[in-house]
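Final report, closing paragraph on structural work. Over the funding period we assembled a curated collection of sequence-structure pairs, and we close with a single example.
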Amino acid sequence: MNQKIMIFFCVFTLLFLTACNQSDHESPKHRNSNPAAESQDGGEEEAKNQNTGALPDESAPKDGTQTDDMDDDSELEYNVQPVRDENADWKDITTITQMQITVTDKKNNELQNISYSYDLSYEPAAFTGKVLLEDVNFDGSDDILLDLGRYGNQGVKYYACYLWNPAAKQYEEIPEFQEIRNPVLNSADQEILSSWRNSADSYGYAKYRWENGSLQMTARISVDYDIETMEAQMTEERLENKQMVRTGADKETIQKEWQPDTAMWAGDMAGKILYEE
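Its predicted structure, as stored:
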């Protein structure tokens, strides 16, 4: 009897152990069997945890600089004062000998003091002492122009020019700009147009561009009228290897490209006026 009880107990124990072992092997079937999906789920959970923090400031400069300390030429201030001939009996526009321009930053720190002396050997017409800001080299920064008036029988307009150098935070005089007759900005093509009248039957037109920081005449045409027939003869020259070379273009081609009879050549500088009498 005891032997039967012992045999029954051993069989029952073996059946119980077998059932437990089978249960352990079946349990992984309910787990995620895809390691990639498990990793993705973990990444999404981590991303959710990270996204609960503050978002980065998109307006902050990417290079780590502070916008409050960044220099902007649009925030510069200009104090323009004329200097007059002390020996003159009157104090009108004709007595101006110099123009003093003081440039300061937004904190009123003086950056530069420009002193321009006018050529008193000539007496220009339509001189008003005008000083204005205009982006002359199309870099997005304001440059300084001084209206020198009109000269000669043809009333040619000239300007003195100071370009803003953002690296040096200074204005630099560009003497060659003063040689351009009746300059007009063509912002669309980033060039400076120039036109003049040699005589009643002879005219000239030129285009200037900025090349590596310097001003270069890149093309010009001459328009001469026959006195008897009033027929226009046009010749074109372009800059090649630092020399102006005649192109041989015909009249129709020149007329179509240059359009010398249009109002685009008859304009003037139209920037922000800092001073004028």
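DSSP finds three helices and 14 strands in the chain. The CA atoms of residues 39 and 225 lie 84 Å apart. We thank the funder for supporting this effort.
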